[in-house]
Amino acid sequence: MLGEFHTQLQRVSVSGLAHVTGHTWIPHHPDALPFTRRHGAPTQNSVLGESVIVDGEGRVWLSQGGGHLVREGTNHSRVVSYDPKSGIFRAYNLPGNRNEAMGPLWDDRRGVIWVAESGMHSARAVPSAGSAENAPRAGALVAFDPKTSPHDDDFLWDRPLDQLLCSEPSPDPVGCFARYTLPAGALAPAQLVHPLLGPRDRTSGSGDRRGHRVPAGGRDRNGRSG
């Protein structure tokens, strides 16, 4: 599990009425301050820790970068995997800035990780849709294949990663990050689910809306939660 403000992955072992808590440091470059506190100060602490998931191979996945933070400046995001059997971490640094990534989801059928980007204060470059600074803000869903996408646990965040975006989004990305931009105004997607590996359902950060995207056709539907 994650604390709201974190640099470590927490684990709890339960046996009967007893439980033991341990902490594992998440790797990062010692000179990098990729994240931003609510008041704009750079930090190595990821803000707003969200869900932790486990894939079919037993790897633990989490997102770092948080949501709804700052309108300007630096606030990068990444998706991190941890293999408890080998003790190996891998960090997948997401193209763009102020992505505010959260809610990772493992697509077992495709072997792909999906993550939501809030789009509240995003700063993106071509070929991402809606990339211009004056473009309407919108959330996005991002997919990547951890077997083919580059990872770098020791990344300094001293250069852009826009070249890692797929030229055209695909639900089966190879060596790149596929970004599906949601309709203008569809902000703050949060937790992702997919019934029977079908459409990617998502809820807004406030929990008052729900929508889904069908990756093959690229359609997106929004509706207010009852």
Description:
This protein has no helices and 18 strands. By secondary structure, it is mostly beta strands. The strands form 6 sheets. Strands 7-8-9-10 form a 4-stranded antiparallel beta sheet, with no helix packed on it.
SSE layout and pairing:
Blueprint: E1 5-6, E2 8-15, E3 18-25, E4 35-36, E5 42-43, E6 46-47, E7 52-54, E8 60-64, E9 78-83, E10 88-93, E11 101-107, E12 112-117, E13 140-144, E14 178-181, E15 189-193, E16 200-204, E17 209-214, E18 219-224
Antiparallel strand pairs: 1-6, 2-3, 4-5, 7-8, 8-9, 9-10, 11-12, 12-13, 13-14, 15-16, 16-17, 17-18
Shape: globular
* H-E order: EEEEEEEEEEEEEEEEEE
Number of domains: 1
Q: How confident overall, as mean pLDDT?
A: 78
Keywords:
four-stranded antiparallel β-sheet, Neuraminidase, 226 residues, mainly beta
Structure at a glance:
By secondary structure, the protein is an all-beta fold.
